[in-house]
Amino acid sequence: MVKENLKHLKTFNKFRWSLIVLFLIVNILLIFTYQNPNLLAIDSFLVTAILFILAVLHGNERYGKKNIAIFFLITWAVSFFFENLSIATGFPFGFYHYSPSLGLLTVPLIIIFAYFAIGYLAWTLAHVLTGQYTRKLEGNQVFVIPFIAAFLMVMWDLTVDPISSTLQGLWVWTTPGAYFGVPISNFFGWFLVVYLFFQIFALYLSRYDTMKPEKLSKISNKPYWMEAAAVYTITALGTILSVFYQYNDITMSMALITVFTMVFVALLALINILDEKKLS
Prior knowledge:
The protein has 8 helices and 2 strands, in the order H-H-E-H-H-E-H-H-H-H. It is an all-alpha fold. It has a two-stranded antiparallel ribbon.
């Protein structure tokens, strides 16, 4: 029975790593689709879909189906509320609207799935950076993890928003701001919103999270935690590669910022994982 479980675990890990390789390929293909709105929409959907699947599969190993579903519902409820609030009132991000290419809804579904997927990556890397691998959240970590995760997620938006809005027009700011057309309020709004759903989830886990022996055996290995660092790096690579489809001040600046934010975080996380003698 034990051998069968180990065999299943190895196969499942290989499946996730295969998805990570596919995620890399799709991100590379983005540079060939930017000039075609239809191809770009399809490739962007694939990027988000694969990222979402990876987050669900990885999160299920650590938290189980119920808790990862609750994380999705929390991110959906908080992000959907504030996205609609900002579109209507300008708070907290600023006034903007989404392009019809993303869907007919005021807030396209792909945006909500992206919140969850990127949010889960940031959440997991916050655990790596603090050495909080398999332990249940308690004490000050209940507040430290959401705070760090919020910074890691805003790093992503800091690098993609000018490209997605100013260059691609996936969303349009009513009054363009100082950061390559993006209002500064957007990033403070992002920090507020993502911190809120991280904090709500942390408070939930501090009370209801359980670590069963069979679950612990699945996540007490370095390759499991390296998956999050790898996916975060590939996500950053997608932004860096934008210089190959359009070389200008925005793409070059975003590539530079990505290297010294997201790539640095991914490398730091990888170093922490490799240096860890015993994951706990």
